[in-house]
């Protein structure tokens, strides 16, 4: 069954449209399961009906015409329950409804499984047989697996308009679709998609209409001839070192590129309207899938040859193609994996938002997007990005959603949110030089999180009173090798000098997990539980000492440096790091530098650290909570995984209790406690953290005005009362709702995350 499933998946991937996919599915399943009938019903949301879209075994004339309401028949029951139904004799089931004209009266046994995508039932996959019997567990598992594969294909087809509307309208009638990702930078953007592909990556080439068919063909022919020339040159170069039969391999390559083979198929695709790169991708991928599906190992390996040829031709086409891209107003840049270089190619005034199929909120591009204030969604794994060029998107950077082909109604909802965001931002500018002080006189210092020079400028513009987290790994991530002590000194000096005499908290190198250096790769099965943070730098004292020396030298004459240690789990790590910092201080003094030992603190990011806060506090000068990592470790949820991002709940009672406990324990040792995670940047979260007793809140500078406004609009007494209420609550969403409602009562509802469509 596994081999059959593999072939079905490959064939489905190669099918040109949804109709072909559905027809292929029913034929292959009928053959694989040796049933007399297999059918697919898709759910039409407008009509609220399941419509027969493909069948092998029923009357073909019934396709597209026969339908059931959402509550009718066993098919409707499968959809309602969202689980398989396996019957020995369907006609005896109370929900059975006979569908005239289908010919189903011949069948008795019934197995139906729902086709589900992101919790929505898209349709039902059914098999039946004439004999009365229950399908066994293996058959049921096989059908469930196929339906899971089919769900993604249907969702893609709806988003790109390749689905045949089940009401009978023409192909290309697009349907509004929603895709879930991870919020990387807040805000909303509405605009056309511009898909950017990395060089010579066939999988990333988008479909685009050919504006000049003959020019596209000419471009392809020139690239083809260049590849033929390369192959001939290589063949001649190696001719003396190869046997005759090995030299023949180059002739095979050349024959593949013949006009009657791959080349002819590409030209045909171009004449049908796809641009040259898209046509090449279609043909090459189709041939790769054909070879991959073959039983013979030798023939399967030919897929590698086809892939290599495709990349070579694509590289020449991309090199010869005009580099100038016409970016429309409000461009939403879409890529398989966004890079900072891609952002730099789009004119700033044209760029409205960013979408990345892969990548996390800690990628270089995401960090840069937050610094620039560009709404961004990462990890939209199901998005059919190669097929949405020029389609209108809504990018919801608050919830991590992307809408393709949004309706006028939902566009208006989001335009209202954008207008409200602009009005709020304009109204908050006047708070820059005012303190974050409650109406009953409680002062709450607000610091900024930084990583790039532009972050410092924005933090100062928004009235930050210090830097609670400077991510020193970012200068490491944007280089091809470890920066020298002198290079680090210059980088750190600019941060310290810009904020002097206000404090600047520099976190020592925090790599691992989802933050990798290209020149220092860390390959692990589970990187978030692996070699990261302080574990790496203590194992490499040469890296740690150089960085600390650079920080200390940069601090000379300024005196506003604070050093923070990430991912600490034991007092042994703190003691060892302290010894190395002392060593660096002594070395520099011996070299003639006037160096003072700065305050040193630790980050509480893992559950083990929560219960050692007092022990840490006796060894350091301050405690800082990294609430993002702490939340994901407490809840066992990877916040960068869109499949489980909905389970990442900063207001989960266990998270709130841990945060309150940390503040209490730190204060028992009279040590300052701060927090530098995303929770501090939410006005609702900031009010709770203030009530818990946190001494400093550090956040992305964009959020400082909102948080300041919330603190100035509430009394400390009211905030403490809210915390008391929250302590008795059990549900994260209910807690968040209480906090949002409180802001509404205080006339501050515009500061909380907007209420968004579900």
Automatic annotation (TrEMBL):
InterPro entries: GAF, GAF-like_dom_sf, PEP-util_enz_mobile_dom, PEP-utilizing_PTS_enzyme, PEP_util_C, PEP_util_CS, Phosphohistidine_dom_sf, PTS_EI-like. One of its GO terms (biological process) is phosphoenolpyruvate-dependent sugar phosphotransferase system. Its cofactor is Mg(2+). Residues 17-164 form the GAF domain. Keywords: Cytoplasm, Kinase, Magnesium, Metal-binding, Phosphotransferase system, Pyruvate, Sugar transport, Transferase, Transport. Pfam families: GAF, PEP-utilisers_N, PEP-utilizers, PEP-utilizers_C. Its main location: cytoplasm. It is found in: Cytoplasm. Its EC number is 2.7.3.9. It comes from the Bacteria. Belongs to the PEP-utilizing enzyme family. This is phosphoenolpyruvate--protein phosphotransferase.
